[in-house]
User: Which sequence fits this backbone?
């Protein structure tokens, strides 16, 4: 091939997409609506407004508009760290001695260290536009909380983050980044909320959980004048904002005249994967092109591959609506893997529907093999990957090695969602040979399923 | 002004400079040579070869060639993380309400988190080309050690890092990054070297120092077949490699048709500052253009502003040659400021000569005012700066505020050398209002000066 492909394809700022792409518009079977856990009735935008910003509620239920314009203020913020590069992994290809062409879309070049900022800035913008004083949220590993803190600092909004207590104590640096951006960070469960006090009373000395932190953040949002709750994954609105990843990826590939054969992303709640694949999936849904689209989930939390496609709570505290999704049960306890962003029992309803309808594949990877892939990648490509991202790297390498067997020069594209600077405890375990793999037993799975609520009366 | 300036100016990969710029070629008064501390005789390339790679020794003493070609292998590595963006700080300007135009060259978008990688990859390349097995070095805060580990992983070279024991213990994450890239990291003083054993015997339980770590790294390099010692700052060769920063900055400004009025960089050993200003200084030396060039040093370690321009040791262990530079004395103990990269008693000989000859200014900044500037910057521009970089931000903001007074729309360019992800203990202190400023007393300074060796017989 005589055509010269650069190491990194950067779009110009004028090429940053002006609208997000809403894949739901092209889905024949739309994702099922959220339902009220008490009445089992579908929730419309107005039902969601006590909790979420008004404009975001509209986006949440919008199954029709293919494109939704990105407001100029958000585009200006995007210009500070986007377009993100699409990188040709020449050095990794050489190391693997594969004829495959490997590309990765790198979303870690901003202080939050991940793609989460793409949606955080949008949610902060709509909160500001609505005249709110501030927003509340929960954070586990801390990437979402950091992204939201940065976004709130930019729009001069108050930001209250409830951070799972065990992470608050184990990851003081994550906490300090958020404070540096002006957020208040509270260890959850706290004594500031009714639900927090109740949990502290019931389980003295508990380290907290994401489910508990969600409950606290929602309570504060709904009981404070001028506040709303925001969430960094799973929701349709989040996948909409994250479509910027896929739109840029596709534009960059078009620019160098290349077409993806396989698109690979890690899957936790679905925000990165849904964003990366959006425009490719759109072409596939419209019958304009075909792609292999592969979700990689941790073997210890296999929502797609071992879960059930049913209505379930999004949180362990059962304060959220029910969503129809692949789920392991809201009380399934994922073993302590280091890719905290993938430790979620459920999955985006959009991705769940697409997987159910056969538009994408899903595979699992064990954490030790993911860290091995991350280290191999880091040593030749330079970037230290987040543990979440390492799942996509693992499968990208495996696919590239298959190409070596067959001699095919496939174009493999994967999402490198973020950096691992705050995950070095995990790398240390791996470097010391002390990292273990955890696989749920059949009993663990059955225990999780046993708490899925009965929604057999629901029609969707 | 109708011309549209983008947020970020990226050069294309084809616009990455093909040669480093050697500012010495344009200096009327050349920097003084290194001298042997015993004989006080000037050291030529061959005198340095037992310690450093041969090609790097040639670069060290090359005062004549204006351009030195960047080998293709290094250029290919540069393509993985360069060109780095020149960013127009629109949001900071708006926040400050200044007519000034502020630009920053951001060198933190690589896993080492700083500009250090620019020279590390060059030094690793020449070591590999010479057929060496590996290199040794010391690291304090860890940015240089990380950069060198990444570079050695890329060229499959062994990398032995001696890390100041107190940092080794306080910064386990920095250590793990290096291990992830395959380096061996040893707490210094160790029991592996003669000098280490001696220091451990003399000062049981000592936390070590950079001076001691240098001594260990040099001992191992000179006593091991196929090893050489490498250094991340101060040396002429390092400033040469770092000229890539300034060359790209100038090319980006030229591309948008802008000319810098003030160029600001933080100054520790001089690697970033020397690199950033190189081509601008070249124009100034040749009389082709004029610029205000400002070095910012920490108030607690004021080499330029309070030091003497004399021959001195580069390390506290007195194993290095003597360099003619602005120095506070090799036994001057800088107070514990958080910008570890700026805690050096001396300064690059090139920059020392240029400052002595009136081609640049120097100012000091206190760490609390630097962290305040860093936080103000982070909240609007997104990036969390390294404590070192915050010194340049402080002065850039001050200059922009002066422009507000005078109404001048000056172009202010500063170097944002790196990110602060591994410096969050310092941010925490600042956020908690517990950070203090340390200024050396007249007594501290005199104590430092009292250990400067007598070199009155030297002619240079």
Assistant:
């Amino acid at each position: 091939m005589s055509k010269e492909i650069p190491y990194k394809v950067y779009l110009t700022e004028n090429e940053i997409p002006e609208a997000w792409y809403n894949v739901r518009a092209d889905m024949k079977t739309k994702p099922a609506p959220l339902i009220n856990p008490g009445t089992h009735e579908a929730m419309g935008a107005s039902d969601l407004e006590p909790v979420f910003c008004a404009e975001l509620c509209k986006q949440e239920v919008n199954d029709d508009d293919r494109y939704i314009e990105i407001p100029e203020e958000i585009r200006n913020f995007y210009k500070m760290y986007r377009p993100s590069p699409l990188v040709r992994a020449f050095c990794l290809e050489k190391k693997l001695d594969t004829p495959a062409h490997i590309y990765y879309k790198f979303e870690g070049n901003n202080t939050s260290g991940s793609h989460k900022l793409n949606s955080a800035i949008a949610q902060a913008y709509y909160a500001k536009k609505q005249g709110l004083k501030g927003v509340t949220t929960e954070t586990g590993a801390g990437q979402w909380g950091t992204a939201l803190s940065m976004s709130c600092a930019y729009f001069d909004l108050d930001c209250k983050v409830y951070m799972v207590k065990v992470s608050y104590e184990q990851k003081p640096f994550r906490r300090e980044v958020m404070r540096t951006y002006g957020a208040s960070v509270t260890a959850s469960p706290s004594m500031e909320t009714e639900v927090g006090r109740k949990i502290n009373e019931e389980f003295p000395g508990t380290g907290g959980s994401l489910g508990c932190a969600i409950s606290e953040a929602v309570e504060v949002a709904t009981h404070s004048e001028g506040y709303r709750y925001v969430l960094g994954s799973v929701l349709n609105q989040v996948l909409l904002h994250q479509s910027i990843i896929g739109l840029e990826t596709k534009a960059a590939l078009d620019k160098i005249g290349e077409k993806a054969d396989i698109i690979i992303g890690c899957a936790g709640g679905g925000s990165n994967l849904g964003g990366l694949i959006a425009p490719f999936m759109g072409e596939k849904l419209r019958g304009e092109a075909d792609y292999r689209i592969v979700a990689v989930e941790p073997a210890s939390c296999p929502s797609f591959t071992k879960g059930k496609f049913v209505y379930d709570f999004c949180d362990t505290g059962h304060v959220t609506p029910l969503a129809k999704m692949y789920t392991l049960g809201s009380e399934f306890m994922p073993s302590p893997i280091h890719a905290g962003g993938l430790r979620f029992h459920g999955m985006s309803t959009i991705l769940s529907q697409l997987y159910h309808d056969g538009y994408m594949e899903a595979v699992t990877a064990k954490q030790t093999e993911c860290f091995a892939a991350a280290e191999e990648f880091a040593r030749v490509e330079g970037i230290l990957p987040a543990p979440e991202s390492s799942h996509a790297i693992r499968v990208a390498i495996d696919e590239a090695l298959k190409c070596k067997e067959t001699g095919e020069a496939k174009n493999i594209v994967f999402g490198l969602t973020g950096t691992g600077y705050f995950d070095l405890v995990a790398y240390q375990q791996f470097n010391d040979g002390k990292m273990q793999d955890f696989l749920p037993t059949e009993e663990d799975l059955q225990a999780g399923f046993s708490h899925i609520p009965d929604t057999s009366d629901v029609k969707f």
Remarks:
- Chain A has two domains: 8-16+81-113+242-449, 32-68+116-229.
